[in-house]
Design goal:
The chain is α/β, with parallel strands linked by helices. The chain is 38% helix and 16% strand. The chain contains 12 helices and 17 strands. The strands form 5 sheets. The chain has a 7-stranded mixed β-sheet, with helices on both faces. The radius of gyration is 21 Å and the shape is globular. The protein binds pyridoxal-5'-phosphate.
Length: 372
């Protein structure tokens, strides 16, 4: 099965992991700090603070930003649930903003949603395509809001030669198995703000500071959300290959773009000239007349060996959210959910695989458009 996204682990990754397993530190050794320094350098920011997942990183970021009961956060419904879950955990209310046809938050609709309770804007770079951060940052500045960017898809993406991770107050990345690079499970918050970095470090590690000799002091409430040495060593090894992974995914994506250019039955995600994308996903957006056939198309693609997936059911449509916040409807987000299929585009594929994927997608969708 060719997967919409998957990890690529090679011998050098295995070697560094084995080396850590044979070393004296499995936790709280030098590898975590090393990985953090590598990450910060790659993205071009001052601080990277790692966590055992991006979900933990989101939880920490919202907490140290002071998000609390009755605060509101403007965010996108087209994301993995964790983006909203972690501020609902903090007692805050998600205000979902509609999206554009590329799956990213519609920045022109943000300002109308701001109230005296709004504390932050939380955009997600869908599929790796950077959100319009310039506009989002200027709205935030004008209204005294924080920008916390969930860039779980977008490690290595950028705008005008600057990397995603250097634009927002805090940016979250995920190193879950199928994200742009992996530590098996893992995540990080990147920031240029020293106070945030220190608060994040306390939050992930019991709120304890070391004093002298055996004496330490717990000065804040904290958790244990730390990354292991094994994970961090894998992360540093993977990070060396990130650009090669991205080049490979872009090579496949460009090939798809050409194959699909004149095909009228679906659209693809357009990336602007000034933008680069990690291509975490390659979404196709079916025309409305194919919506009734989407289930059949999805099943047939799977049957032909394409590990497709749909990203995402709008978060507010999950039963937890419906029960807690009631009926919500956003036209474009729901249209996007009805239309989207993520097709295989990952760094383990060769161009023959890519050709097979393109041929199969074109043939099946043509066939079902006729059946309609
Ligand atoms: C994967 C993902 C997360 C959660 O990441 P984990 O590392 O699995 O906790 C959060 N937000 C988005 C947009 C994601 O894609």
């Amino acid at each position: 099965m060719l997967s919409y996204s998957t990890q690529l682990i090679s011998q050098d990754d295995i070697d560094v992991v084995v080396e850590v397993l044979k070393s004296s530190f499995l936790a709280q050794g030098p590898r975590v700090a090393e990985f953090e320094s590598n990450l910060a350098q790659y993205v071009g920011v001052n601080y990277a603070v790692t966590f055992n997942s991006a979900t933990s990183a989101l939880q920490a970021a919202y907490n140290i930003a002071g998000i609390q009961e009755n605060d509101e956060i403007i965010t996108t419904p087209i994301s993995f649930v964790a983006t909203s879950n972690m501020f609902v955990c903090a007692g805050a209310k998600p205000i979902w903003c509609d999206v554009k046809s590329d799956g990213n938050i519609d920045e022109t609709k943000i300002e109308a949603l701001i109230t005296p309770n709004t504390k932050a804007i939380v955009p997600v770079d869908f599929a790796g395509k950077p959100v319009d951060i310039q506009v989002i940052n200027s709205i935030a500045k004008k209204n005294n809001l924080l920008v916390i960017q969930d860039a779980s898809h977008a490690l290595g993406s950028g705008i005008n030669n600057e990397k995603v991770g250097s634009f927002a107050d805090m940016t979250i990345f995920s190193f879950h198995a199928i994200k742009p690079i992996t530590t098996s499970e893992g995540g990080a918050v990147l920031t240029n703000n020293k106070e945030y970095a220190e608060a994040l470090q306390l939050f992930r590690s019991h709120g304890i500071v070391k004093k002298e000799l055996w004496n330490s002091d717990m000065i804040e409430m904290g958790y244990n959300l730390r990354m292991t040495e094994v994970a961090a060593a894998l992360g540093s090894s993977q990070l060396k290959k990130l650009d090669a992974f991205i080049d490979k995914r872009n090579e496949i994506a460009h090939y798809f773009d050409v194959r699909f250019k004149d095909f009228a039955l679906f659209k693809t995600q357009k990336v602007e000239d000034k933008q680069t994308t990690s291509r975490h996903l390659y979404p196709i957006i079916l025309n409305a007349k194919l919506h009734s056939q989407k289930e059949a198309i999805f099943l047939e693609l799977q049957k032909q060996g394409l590990g497709v997936q749909v990203h995402y059911k709008p978060i507010y449509q999950n039963s937890f959210y419906q029960e807690k916040f009631g009926y919500i409807s956003l036209t474009q987000a729901e249209e996007f959910y009805r239309s989207e299929i993520s097709i295989p585009c990952n760094q383990t594929m060769d161009m023959k695989d890519a050709q097979y994927v393109a041929d199969t997608v074109l043939a099946i969708i043509t066939q079902y458009s006729k059946a309609h």
